[in-house]
UniProtKB/TrEMBL annotation:
One Pfam match: Lipase_GDSL
Protein name: SGNH hydrolase-type esterase domain-containing protein
Transmembrane segments: none
Lineage, top ranks: Eukaryota, Viridiplantae, Streptophyta, Embryophyta, Tracheophyta
CDD domains named in the record: Isoamyl_acetate_hydrolase_like
Family: Belongs to the 'GDSL' lipolytic enzyme family.
Species annotation: Rehmannia glutinosa (Chinese foxglove)
Record InterPro entries: GDSL, Iah1-like, SGNH_hydro_sf
Length: 254
């Protein structure tokens, strides 16, 4: 650990999380917005489904940890929603099991610490045509359709309403953009920089509207070492310095 201690935001999920620091990804945007306020930590696992997530909950979020996250953002569902392979192998998880797995994740996080806040991300749509362009001769073809994504997204939303868990409806949010199918995805599944901006916007809406104490919205959190300093850049009038502690690259989407 390094000090001073900051709140920890943990992103837990599949490749949507693992790739979220790449190429203007949503984790990198959050890290910039929360610079000097919170540490964004990724626990993303390419190819994983909710079944594998449940198996490692005690390792990723141990109950006896000295420090618990202030916020956990959870995404599973895209791989679960892939159609079943005839062999029985592969990432598919039947819908009833997916719902129960996500319930187990929520219960584990809620019982770990009453100070940990939770946001689930529902399954976003995909660009089916673009996804088919990225097929590999080394991997059996997966059945990935928007209809399956919609079904798993709705199941996630229903569960969150039942359990009083905050949720981002990515299925709806992404499709609000007219050219979403081309603009929001790098390969048909994983977010482009434009898609990642939408993810961040929706997460920030939840954080702003949540009646959590303390608030985890970036504007409400204290800045680390915010004081003015004679060592900051000198203003054009040559008489004072400019405090840069509130600066963020992504001011345009806030």
């Amino acid at each position: 650990m390094v000090g001073p201690g900051r709140p920890l935001f943990v992103l837990f999920g599949s490749s949507i999380v693992q790739f979220s620091f790449k190429n203007g990804g949503w984790a990198s945007i959050l890290s910039d917005i929360y610079a000097r306020k919170a540490d964004i930590i990724s626990r993303g696992y390419f190819g994983w489904n909710s079944r594998r997530a449940v198996q490692v909950l005690d390792q990723v979020f141990p109950k006896d940890a000295n420090i618990h996250p202030s916020l956990v953002i959870v995404y599973f569902g895209g791989n679960d929603s892939a159609g079943p392979h005839p062999s029985g192998l592969g990432p598919h998880v039947p819908l009833p099991e997916y719902i129960e797995n996500m319930r187990k994740i929520a219960i584990h996080l809620k019982t770990n610490s009453d100070k940990t806040r939770i946001i689930f991300l529902s399954c976003p749509p995909i660009n089916e045509a673009k996804l088919n362009e990225y097929s590999s001769p080394h991997v059996s073809k997966l059945v990935r359709t928007n209809e399956l994504c919609r079904i798993y997204s709705e199941a996630c939303l229903d569960l969150c309403r039942e359990m009083d868990v905050k949720v981002v409806d990515l299925w709806t949010a992404i499709q609000k953009r007219e050219d979403w199918s081309n603009a929001c995805f790098a390969d048909g599944v994983h977010f482009s920089a434009e898609g990642s901006k939408i993810v961040v916007e929706e997460i920030l809406k939840v954080l702003e509207e949540a009646e959590w104490e303390p608030s985890l919205h970036w504007k409400s959190m204290p800045i680390e070492f915010p004081e003015d300093s004679p060592y900051d850049l000198v203003a054009s009038d040559g008489k004072r310095t400019i405090n840069p502690s509130k600066y963020t690259v992504y001011g345009g989407i806030l």
